[in-house]
Amino acid sequence: MIRLHHVPLGRSFRVMWLLEELGLDYEVAYYSIRDGSMRTPEFYALSPAGRVPALEYHGETWFESGAILQLLCEHHPEAGLQPAPGDADRALYLEMMHYSETVGSLVENLNLNHVFLHNPADASPVVIKLLTARLRAALAAIDRRMGSDMLLPSGFSAADIMFSYGFELARYYVEMEQFPKLWAYWDRFKAREAYQRAKARDGEQDLYDRDFYPVPEVKRDPSEWKG
Ligand SMILES: N[C@@H](CCC(=O)N[C@@H](CS)C(=O)NCC(=O)O)C(=O)O
Question: What is the DSSP-derived secondary structure letter of residue 61?
């Protein structure tokens, strides 16, 4: 039995997409970050920080999306989605697996400021401006370096799946058209049938209520910070 614990548009989409690439049957338990459904003893038993994804996999329970991707690839080496130690793309593979969380954590912090605060006045325009600049720089670096159809010269891999979370949500905060190679790469991975099957099971997201969240004006006059 395979059961994915999932929030629509969350990092658990990475696991959903890989399960589709592998052609596995799986159930989905849906949660929302907003409604407290992840704050139960049962869920903390699956995922110690109360976060998605968690994956129940034939009697084992795994958390952390990167670890889950690597474990699934190890269990299904026939899919060829993870370069082995010694392979030419192994170092780049590991770099991109972890770089994906450099991008993902910037998006997560922007989500916190733009989307999750009950009182929007609590958001910091200065922090949003810095986070947005860092996100733009992190994406620009990959855009400049990209020299193949997928992140690895050897082709599609779990690193592309890992990268998808931060990369796809970055569009809410930065204009993606400024990254021509990444823009074309996005079209290529969206064309994959497994990606489309996963999207069909992703569920209704309740995070974003608009298409784009611009950087708010940063007030630099200290007198405006008081009171
Ligand atoms: N490094 C973890 C991060 C997991 C994570 O933060 N997931 C988010 C959704 S994208 C979550 O569950 N957030 C719930 C919360 O912050 O309460 C992973 O890659 O699995």
Answer: E
Sketch the domain layout of the chain as residue ranges. 90-192
Pick from 11, 31, 69 the residue to mutate for probing ligand 1's pocket: most ligand atoms within 8 Å of its CB: 11
Helix (H), strand (E) counts: the chain: 8, 4
- Mention the CATH class of domain 90-192: mainly alpha
Q: Rounded to whole angstroms, what are the CA distances from 192 to 12, 20, 88, 111, 156?
A: 18, 10, 24, 27, 10
Tell me, what's the pLDDT at 37? 95
**What is the pTM for the complete model shown?**
0.95
182 close to ligand 1 (CB < 6 Angstrom): no
Number of CB atoms found within 10 A of residue 94's CB: 16
Q: Convert the pLDDT of each residue in 65-110 to its tens digit.
A: 999 999 999 999 999 999 999 999 999 999 999 999 999 999 999 9
DSSP 122: G
